[in-house]
Write a structure and sequence with these properties.
Elements (H helix, E strand, L loop, with lengths): L3 E4 L2 H5 L6 H8 L21 H19 L19 E3 L2 H17 L6 E3 L9 H6 L12 E5 L6 E5 L5 E6 H14 L5 H10 L5 H8 L9 E3 H22 L3 E4 L4 H6 L6
Parallel strand pairs: 4-6
Antiparallel strand pairs: 1-2, 1-8, 3-7, 4-8, 5-6
């Protein structure tokens, strides 16, 4: 299944009141787009009202803010939850995210970045991954498998259930921003203008990749991509999400269909 990055309220996310880039493209070009659940079936129709979902999102927000507050202090400031605030989304997919992890780890350890990344490959395919996973200095949200970043400036991460009840790593936008800045400092030292442009010029749709594709095997099935180009694409989308989160005060989520089970079976899990 694909991977999207989303920055917006939990209410909007779980009511599915947002459209990923594939949906947006399909509608703009006159095609029908149907979301499919991990089991291959069309997604279930919502069985929880938008009002109930917003109430649950608020309960979850307040609960986790109390849980991560320093001992003896008040809960951290709450962000606004509703279904109307704007959202940002894009589609790095797994290849780009894994390439970014590989690129970042190689830069951290001064190792050469592999020039090509296999289609469908993972960060764990490379020996540097084990070095990173065993290094206390690399206890980053990115390397810890975080899938949710709260709109909080203080860097931290913890294991916690999402509103669906799924146990995941939850971190903060401040932590993600610091990690992205570290990667840029170690490598490109690019301006924000340049970073923002990569979402449209790098990765699987970049001119460099298209040129390489024409030189691939006769079946035109591309099997490898430029590691750095993929990393730049994922980096740009993550940076865009961070900036959007800072502006609008909303969480960031990695989306790969985790919201569907909650809507299908009607569970409210944070009570």
């Amino acid at each position: 299944m694909g991977l999207d990055i989303y920055a917006g309220t939990l209410t909007r996310y779980y009511t599915q009141n947002w459209k990923n880039v594939a949906q947006q493209w399909a509608e703009a070009n006159g095609y029908t787009f149907t979301r499919v659940a991990p089991n291959g079936e069309p997604e279930a129709v919502d069985v929880i009202s938008a009002e109930e979902i917003q109430e649950e999102a608020v309960r979850w927000r307040d609960k986790i803010l109390r849980a991560i507050a320093p001992e003896g202090q008040e809960p951290l400031p709450a962000w606004e939850e509703n279904g109307e605030k704007p959202y940002y989304t894009d589609k790095p997919d797994w290849d780009a995210l894994n390439a970014l992890l590989l690129f970042a780890a190689c830069k951290m350890y001064g190792e050469a970045v592999p020039s090509l990344f296999d289609k469908g490959g993972t960060f764990e395919d490379y020996p540097v991954s084990q070095r990173a996973y065993g290094d206390e200095r690399m206890r980053w949200s990115l390397f810890s498998g975080a899938v949710c970043w709260l709109p909080i400036a203080e860097p931290l991460y913890t294991q916690a259930p999402l509103p669906t009840g799924e146990q995941v790593i939850v971190s903060t936008v401040g932590a993600l921003k610091g990690e992205l800045e570290k990667i840029n400092d170690l490598s490109w030292q690019a301006s924000e203008e340049t970073i923002l442009s990569w979402a449209g010029t790098e990765g699987q749709s970049s001119a460099a990749v298209e040129s390489a594709e024409r030189q691939q095997a006769a079946d035109n099935e591309r099997r490898q991509y430029s590691t750095e180009s993929l990393a730049k694409c994922a980096y740009s989308m993550a940076w865009r999400a961070v900036r959007f989160s800072e502006t609008h005060g909303v969480p960031i989520l990695l989306d790969f269909d985790r919201s569907r089970n909650w809507l299908a079976d009607g569970r409210l899990c944070s009570e």
